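Hi everyone, sorry if this is the wrong subforum. Our group has a chain we'd like a structural model of before ordering constructs, and none of us has done structure prediction before. Sequence below.
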Amino acid sequence: MSELISHGGFFRAVRYTSGFIPTLLVMSAIAALAWWGHAHNWKMPKASVLRGEEVEKDDWCADHNVPESVCVECHPELLPKAASISWCNTHGIPDCTLCQSGNAAGLQQAKLALEFAPRPTNLKACKLHERRLQLADDDAVTKSGLLTELVGTASERDPVVEFISAPGEIGYDQTKVAHLSSRSPGSVVRVFKRLGDKVKQGEVLAIIEAAEVGKAKSELLIAFGLFQLKSQILDSIKSSAGAVPDLRMREAEAAVRETELRLDAARQALVNLGLTLDETELRLATAEQLKFKLHFLAIPADVTAGFDPKKTTSSLLPLLAPMDGTVVSRDVVVGEIVDLAKTLFELVDTSSLWLTLDVKSEDAAKLKLESKQVIRFKSDATAEVLTGTIAWISTQADMKTRTVKIRANLADSAGQQKANTFGTGRVILREEPTAIVVPNAAVHSEGCCTVVFVCDKDFLKEGSLKVFNVRKVRIGAKDDRRTEIIVGLKTGERVVTTGSGMLLSELLRGGLGEGCACHGAK
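Answer:
Right subforum, don't worry. Here is the predicted structure as tokens:
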């Protein structure tokens, strides 16, 4: 009985399970079909297909974000790449057109620019320059906001200049400054020049009555009288035809020499006071002539005309201008008692100035006196730019500021600049009037490379492929607007300026995906 019950349960289980077998087979078949479809890239048909409408082919390159039919990366035959030359070890860029052109002047210019200072380099292993970027069409270029500009030379605007900037000060040329004081104590009789007057060499600035002058003139007249007397005695002895003993002759000759020395000492005393008297003229003059000449010695005739000889002392000492110049300081009035220590006038030749710059110690090594480096200086007081060359470089640094002083001679014949004014100077280290320059926005230094984006030669033609070539360059001088391209570009090429950062982002995105060496990928 139990055996019958057992067989009955088994048949019921079989009948119950057999009801699920068709469903399991169907589900397994659907799963196998789905797996096979996924493996063979099946896609859900579009609604237009289901409705029986005509379908256009999907023409879009997702990798390069342009229509696939015009994608030059997927279809290089649309715009074949130029044949690669090789890496240029001389200039540090690939496919160096400068070396291929054989332009001697350009090669020499690039050589000097690269040797002048350390320049950013490019990594040879980096392959970014092999990439090309592309936009779909003219509308895409417009919507992206990209702007381009032709590559030009510095001569079309301003020359490329590399310089050292330093604060500076304009001052008088100390070799052309005179501080004038009286050569003898005395009182001021006349003052002829005022502050700011221009004077010529030899003009009288003032006249001083000095007792020492009168004493020196009197000593000269006494010495002159004795000299004439002793000379006459000697002449008389010589004419006596031997009637006078030789001893008396020698005594007379010695007396003449003595008075001659005294006369010369008296003349020299006047010369020391600035009163020059010709020695030959002194010997030939008579006592009366000498007295008249000494009265207004060294004073010009147009000045003595204002004096009455009978009422004027002979102790007058003129203060003369030693050079052409301008009176920049006057500290004297009529009747004032003056001495040797008091400066009465300061006379300056203002047509020549000194420019002194305080150069940083680390920049001083770039200065070379023998190179006659040019300094351009703009004063805070005027808009004029003064130009000179380095004439002196200090051999020591300032103890407080640790700067090195340099000096240039400046010509200012018009007298426009003012002494003791400040400004900024530039020491020109390198100046290139025909360098290739581009706007700063066109240049990108990323990782190990410096690149610009160069438009294809047919870029501006309507309907042309909008392709940008990645070009490695070596850059030189840079200011707030432009960057010098030492090598890597040619004049007449067109580079991307505004919006070039968008192209850089796309370049780096693609470079990382392809394993660019300059970004550390393997």
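For your construct planning: Residues 368 and 381 are 29 Å apart (CA to CA). The two ends are 79 Å apart (CA to CA).
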